[in-house]
Amino acid sequence: MHAHIVIAHPEPASFNGHLAGISQQVFGDAGWQTTLSDLYAMEFDPSEGSHHYNSRKDPAVFHTQNEQRHNADNETLPQEVALEIQHLLGCNLLVVHFPLWWFGMPAILKGWMDRVFVYGRMYRSGMRYDSGICSGKKVIVCVTTGADRESCAYNGREGDTQLHLWPVLFPFRYLGFDVYQPEIFHGVGGAAFIEGSEGGLSTLEAYSGRWKETLETLSSRPLIRYNRDEDFDETKKLVSDAPVYSPFVRHKPDAI
Ligand SMILES: Cc1cc2nc3c(=O)[nH]c(=O)nc-3n(C[C@H](O)[C@H](O)[C@H](O)COP(=O)(O)O)c2cc1C
User: Least enclosed by CB within 10 Å: which of 15, 31, 148, 184?
Assistant: First the structure.
């Protein structure tokens, strides 16, 4: 078995770095092969663009998906992208660590998706969702927030972190992954922490233990439910009696 771990944090000594270390240790101890993409340490360039492609289908106009497909077909993708694809296609489980930054993922992680989820190689019209290339693989994201649990609840001032994470997780579903319910650790290193919170370190210790336990019992963790392909008609609209799982898909336009 192979776990690929991705971390998007500029500081290896951060709590996120510590959690990624636990991921490596748990799967290593269990006899799995583990690989790590530490995006900042790799100086992964998150900005997709013409400068990455020596071979061009159209040297005059850079059309991202055309050039991605052209370079995938010709095996001329940038080396760092090809390596990430190899990890994604080789692993059974993907573990992604990041801090919540402005209610989403850090830009380096979004850019990793922009560049690594290559059109023509990782997805195309007949190869996505239920037929995605990563069908049968699983992913879990482990997220820290500076805000506390109450602020990040369904009725909290910051908004529901579970909802903020929906668009972050959906690209993995798009590629075919089964997506575990995310692990979210609140009240880590944010304003309250910096300004002096009581019991901060013991909280981090408890979180570390919880993360270890999460990984050790991962196979029994619930998956996020998504609509299946057959829940949509030939015009790609939700059929009238289909269930709704996504906050972005609904039967009535004003049902928010
Ligand atoms: C650019 C930036 C944006 C942030 N945005 C949020 C946010 O939207 N919500 C939140 O709860 N915390 C936010 N924070 C706080 C981080 O989530 C927090 O510092 C991090 O989870 C702590 O983990 P670490 O100790 O591993 O860095 C932000 C921090 C930075 C630097």
Answer: 31
Q: Print burial letters for 81-100: b (CB count within 10 Å at least 16), e (below 16).
A: bbebbebbeebebbbbbbbb
pLDDT at position 4 is 99
Q: How far is the CA of 98 from the centre of ligand 1 (A)?
A: 9
CATH number (domain holding residue 137): 3.40.50.360
Q: In the prediction, which pLDDT does 256 show?
A: 62
Same domain, 126 and 236: no
Q: Name which of 199, 187, 184 is nearest 148 in CA terms.
A: 187
Q: Ligand 1 pocket, 106 CB below 6 A?
A: no
What digits encode the pLDDT tens for the residues 169-212?
Answer: 999 999 999 999 999 999 998 766 666 666 677 889 999 999 99
| Domain carrying residue 20 | 2-224
Amino acid at 208: S
Which atom of ligand 1 sits closest to the CA of residue 191? 15
Amino acid sitting at position 27: F
Residue among 47, 49, 112, 55 nearest 84 (CA): 112
d(CA 152, CA 161) in angstroms, rounded, equals: 5
Which two three-digit tokens encode residue 131?
Answer: 């037929």
Number of domains in the chain: 2
